[in-house]
Specification:
Length: 356
């Protein structure tokens, strides 16, 4: 699996340097063939290859009916009917991969001016995180990307419908409705200052430990927030929860965010969806920093759901360099180091520790 991931990202990195000179059909061929490989890797992996896979196996075999109101409907129905067919847990992995990866590739083609570069960026981190670990969130976040596209194009009801469908795969997708308040209009001067102040203001929430979840009515999700709070109080939170200042990808995204704000005028001319992507990433930081007091698990899950837009901002950042290939080389260098780190942390490190 490690060799497959590294091979896929190296091929995409190589083609990204020449993709502007490639025919559209050739670009689609590279993305399509890479997508097939991604599906095969995600579907055939061992339960010991990545975190959460063994937990999915336990859930898969524990669902004996469709009357389960705790887990998401997609998990319940897919597990039940695949079990009835006598198929193993890899059938579940394939089912989710066959939905999430084609959807993701379609969103990349719609939202990215340099889709092969964006795909390389995606493989470096979020492919491993979502399609190989958080497989329910993988489908929800792919639908969320389409929702962002339709919101930017002012097709509100399509955006709402996609987010509601995403809830069937992961309940946290409900938070995606916030993008209805984000426009894709050019940022005015005061909006840029507000976005620049977002992270420092959220840090105040984080370090002072203010928990605003107490003020949210049960009808708007307050009861579920209370359940997360109870888990944290009992010390039952997921061991994979991370502290933001110990997570290099989070810190890289903060640097990316401020870089895009600094070069906004230049990048917005090159990338149509710069405004809505910046607002969405700002909300990802808000979730991570302000919800950590309530629940590190909830904060990190929502951050990862919204921060998927960073793959497009990294792509757009290449336009800050001249000539463009200098930017591509820089971005490729960053994501390859990131990919290696993720492989050793999530894959090799997990396998070695799990088999001791």
């Amino acid at each position: 699996m490690v060799i497959a991931i590294l091979t896929m990202i190296l091929i995409c990195m190589a083609f990204s340097l020449i993709e502007e000179d490639m025919k559209r059909s050739d670009v689609l061929a590279v993305i399509g063939l890479t997508g097939i490989c991604m599906i095969i890797v995600a579907g055939t992996r061992s339960i010991y290859d990545t975190p959460d896979s063994d937990n999915y196996e336990i859930m898969y075999y524990s669902i004996n009916s469709t009357e389960d109101d705790i887990r998401e409907p997609s998990m319940v129905y897919l597990s039940y009917y695949l079990n009835q067919l006598g198929l193993g847990v890899n059938a579940l992995f394939f089912a989710y991969a066959l939905m999430s990866i084609p959807l993701r590739l379609g969103a990349i083609l719609k939202l990215s001016p340099l889709p092969i570069l964006t795909l390389a960026i995606y493989i470096s981190y979020f492919y491993q995180l979502h399609d190989l670990m958080q497989i329910r969130c993988a489908v929800a976040s792919a639908l969320f990307l389409f929702a962002i596209y339709y919101r930017a194009e002012k097709k509100w009801w399509r955006a709402v419908l996609l987010i509601l469908v995403g809830i069937l795969f992961h309940y946290s997708a409900f938070a995606g409705l916030v993008i209805l308040f984000f426009s894709n209009k050019e940022l005015r001067w005061w909006e840029r200052y507000l976005l620049a102040a977002a992270v420092p203001l959220c840090l105040l929430f984080y370090f002072f430990g203010f928990d605003y979840s107490y003020f949210i009515p049960d009808e708007l999700g307050g009861d579920r927030l209370a359940a997360y709070r109870e888990l944290k109080d009992k010390g039952k939170e997921d061991a994979m929860t991370w502290v933001f200042y110990q997570h290099p990808v989070f810190l890289l995204n903060v640097a990316l965010y401020y870089g895009c704000l600094f070069y906004y005028d230049l990048l917005a001319k090159k990338y149509k969806y710069m405004s809505i992507m910046l607002k969405t990433l700002a909300f990802a930081f808000f979730c991570m920093l302000t919800l950590s007091t309530l629940s590190g698990v909830l904060a990190s899950r929502l951050y990862e759901y919204f921060a998927i837009v960073s793959i497009f901002l990294w792509t757009a950042a290449a336009y800050a360099f001249h000539p463009l290939n200098y930017g591509k080389i820089f971005i490729n260098a960053v994501i390859f180091v990131q990919c290696l780190a993720n492989v050793f942390v999530y894959t090799l490190g997990w396998y070695g520790n799990h088999m001791k």
